[in-house]
Design goal:
two-stranded antiparallel ribbon, 5 helices
Length: about 80
């Protein structure tokens, strides 16, 4: 869930994402190039999608929608 606040921070999907990031965080400084770091972030985002989940965001009409891969990678990078 791409949102702000307490509800988003403790949403089950975001907790799962944080766990994935925590497991892989030691790999990030070891990735030498920007491309290697990008591949690591992409693999984390792909792990969420392989689990059968996606990255969603609330739109102005009050509906959830699945975001594009670039936005999903950005969310994983921010964690």
């Amino acid at each position: 869930m791409i949102a702000r606040g307490h509800v988003a921070a403790y949403h089950a999907g975001n907790l799962r994402l944080r766990g994935l990031v925590d497991k892989r965080c030691q790999e990030y400084p070891k990735a030498g190039t920007k491309g290697e770091k990008s591949m690591l972030i992409s693999s984390i985002a792909q792990s969420v999608q392989d689990y059968g989940r996606g990255f969603v965001k609330w739109d102005r009409e009050g509906m959830w929608f699945e975001v594009a891969d670039a936005c999903a990678r950005e969310k994983a990078r921010q964690m």
